[in-house]
Amino acid sequence: MKKFIVCLAILAVAGYAQAASNVTIGTWESETNEGWADHPLTAATGWSATVYVDDPAAMTSIYEYSYDWSTDGWVSLKANVTGWNWFERRDVRDVWWDNQFIEFDVYAVAQSGSAATWAQVEGIAGSFQTNGWFALAGTTYGCLGTPTHVKYDYSAYKGGTYSGTGDAYGSIIIGYNADAPVYMYIDNIKFTIPEPATIGLLGLGGLTLLRRKK
After folding, report:
1. What is the pTM of this model?
2. Model pLDDT for residues 124-149, shown as the tens digit of each residue
3. By three-state DSSP, how is residue 47 classified?
4. Both ends of the chain: CA-CA distance in Å?
5. 23-192: which CATH topology?
6. For residue 92, with 0-12 CB atoms within 10 Å meaning exposed, 13-18 middle and 19 or more buried, which class applies?
7. How far is residue 158's CA from residue 30's CA, in Å, rounded to a whole number?
8. Would you list the DSSP string of 146-205?
9. Do the Cβ atoms of 70 and 185 come closer than 8 Å?
10. Which among 93, 89, 88 has a CA at the least distance from the CA of 157?
């Protein structure tokens, strides 16, 4: 038991060191695409033809950078949602293995004259070079009129067929949908590990028990 508690204390310190591995992959503060592409447009012409969110083919008609709402700095990615769509970030293999959760913030408002009654993040999915697409989250996340923080634990997908050495790259996609036109703001997309503070409390609590026993 004593060894277990000491291990928790060590993890408490290690947790703070691990915090550096949290990686943000979508802040939009520099008003650049940060590697995100509109997936249906890329799918129509193949993997070699990438239409990034700030490409003239997608900018303003589907996406734009917005100062209206943000949870990380001043800028968010604003999507013109008129139905189902998704967008994709490639080359996430390294941060995928180093972390456990994907998190982001979303907020949707009805467009002028729209009778929208719902808007949501319809799903999160991923792929690796040799394994095709797999759904990470089938649950929907509502966000019409209410800012929503999405946090999904994908650790179940980190091993097995998804950890093959032949997988040189990977992708994450985020799907969204609405029953009538809305603007959806998406911000602060990141890969994270468990909160160091939680691990720290466990470790410190264990050391307190040891002191009491003595």
Report:
1. 0.79
2. 888 776 666 777 876 678 899 999 99
3. coil
4. 14
5. Jelly Rolls (2.60.120)
6. buried
7. 31
8. S-EEEEEE-GGGSSGGGG-TT---EEEEEEEEESS-EEEEEEEEEEE-S-HHHHHHHHHH
9. yes
10. 93
